[in-house]
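Structure (tokenized):
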């Protein structure tokens, strides 16, 4: 693992901006996921002042190269080079929400200063293809399955996690606590397990075996999308130990739009 507080006082790294919070009058504390050092917290001093040279490039989900100076508590951003701002996301709420969801997962599931270059490449690639217009639902599901595997939380999709028997084409139940699917004979091993249809299981297995290239050409109906997403969010919530917010905001806005009454006027 790399330790960013060793070596020269100044160092450069490539990063994706995961989140940020305003600090004092003009500063912002940022969480970055970097290629060389994993997740780190940094401070961008004066970034909220008009004309700040740091103001452009450190938006959430942007891919950047940053120059950092080691500080006592937080390293300090001294320069930013924009690699990809992912501008199309700003005009597409659905794509932005799914990209934010992927960043949120990385933020919640990783510890600081643990290098995972494969994870950086996975996140960078996933955000990039969503920004390019690829179905964000499919990308998010592929990302989740890949992320869980990289971090040691792989979902067992082929054999019952309790008895070990090969799963049959039937309704099986997903148990986040046990790490995968339970066959009908073992479903009572976890009362909180979620029943999954045969088609939902097929979709997840296809993602696991074939990857995004194969699944992106398939367009599941809304019912199947909702079922798969519910299962993956349940799994993610268990390991994050808290609710995730990015997609919850999107769903809330969609419900509000559907509930809005249609006005009519007569002549």
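Design, position by position:
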């Amino acid at each position: 693992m790399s330790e960013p507080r060793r070596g020269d006082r100044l160092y450069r790294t490539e990063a994706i901006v995961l989140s940020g919070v305003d600090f004092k009058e003009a500063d912002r504390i940022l969480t970055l996921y970097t290629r060389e050092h994993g997740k780190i917290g940094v401070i961008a001093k004066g970034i909220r002042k008009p004309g700040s040279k740091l103001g452009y490039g450190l938006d959430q989900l942007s891919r950047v190269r940053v120059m950092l100076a080691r500080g006592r508590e937080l390293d300090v951003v001294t320069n930013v080079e924009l690699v990809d701002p992912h501008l199309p996301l700003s005009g597409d709420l659905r794509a932005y929400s799914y990209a934010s969801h992927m960043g949120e997962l990385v933020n919640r599931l990783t510890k600081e200063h643990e290098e995972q270059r494969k994870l950086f490449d996975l996140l960078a690639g996933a955000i990039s293809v969503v920004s390019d217009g690829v179905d964000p639902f499919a990308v998010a599901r592929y990302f989740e399955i890949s992320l869980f595997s990289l971090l040691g939380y792989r979902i067992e999709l082929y054999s019952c996690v309790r008895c070990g028997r090969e799963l049959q084409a039937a309704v099986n139940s997903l148990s986040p606590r046990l790490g995968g699917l339970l066959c009908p004979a073992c479903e009572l091993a976890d009362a909180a397990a979620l029943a999954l249809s045969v088609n939902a299981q097929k979709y997840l297995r296809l993602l696991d075996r074939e990857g995004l290239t194969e699944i992106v050409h398939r367009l599941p109906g809304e019912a199947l999308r909702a079922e798969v997403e519910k299962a993956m969010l349940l799994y993610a919530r268990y390991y994050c130990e808290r609710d995730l917010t990015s997609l919850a905001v999107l769903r809330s806005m969609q419900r509000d739009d559907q509930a809005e009454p249609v006005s009519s006027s007569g002549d």
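Reviewer-requested clarification: The CA atoms of residues 24 and 75 lie 16 Å apart. The chain has two domains: 11-85, 88-254.
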